[in-house]
Amino acid sequence: MPDPQNRPLPLAGKVVLVVGASAGIGADAARVFAADGASLMLVARSEGPLEKIAGELASAGHDVDHVTGDISVARDVARVVDRTVERFGRLDGAFNNAAMTQGGRLDQVPEEDFDRIMAVNVKGTWLCVREQVRVMLGRGAGSIVNVSSIGGLRGSSGLGAYQATKHAVIGLTRTAAHDFGPLGIRVNVIAPGPTETPMLAQTRLAIPGGVEARIAATPLRKAGTGTEVGATASFLLSDRASHISGAVLPVDGGFSA
């Protein structure tokens, strides 16, 4: 939709794939990207919530489609990326946000839970980057934004498996920036602090008092919003960030300062 003040929209003309778009940060980021002019392919495992956000954006006049898929399954990720190119003709940017959390002391995490969170958060991010780069290489351009966490920058008790995956996402992103920068593709990572989402609600249950303690230690004294994370991602996806790659950008109200 056109900007009412006739300012150029930062993502106008760009096709962006939003992974994990059915709720929380992903849904809020999709709203930001659409308002900033992007055409969107929305991806999540659950059809109902995904269809709802896609319908909301389409009703507002935005160019949007959606497809279900499990990012821990290689053929699903390839299908999602191919569907994006079939629908829009190309892929300019991707926001890899899908993840799951896991509470509990490290020695108390069941092996099958550890394997599942690694499959989604780490392998899934790698599969997304691999397939997104596959189609971006043909144009020699693209921008990928992965989502880690401030839990990927430091340690704390009670979320060890989750934090291990978020450290891994940062390492994967930095390596991807080196691998694909010479080929015209930028790869960055955002590290949100406590953000008001359904996942934060799970964390509150898993670690009673832990979220409130982090907010109290945050200089801005509040949790973030998915819209604030989405606005940061929109900047990194846009040409305004044309010389930024391999960056780890906290969106945490100053918690990591």
TrEMBL record:
InterPro entries: KR_dom, NAD(P)-bd_dom_sf, SDR_fam. CDD domains: SDR_c (cd05233). Pfam families: adh_short_C2 (PF13561). Keywords: NAD, Oxidoreductase. The keyword Magnesium does not apply. Residues 14-197 form the Ketoreductase domain. Belongs to the short-chain dehydrogenases/reductases (SDR) family. This is NAD(P)-dependent dehydrogenase (Short-subunit alcohol dehydrogenase family). It comes from Micromonospora echinospora (Micromonospora purpurea).
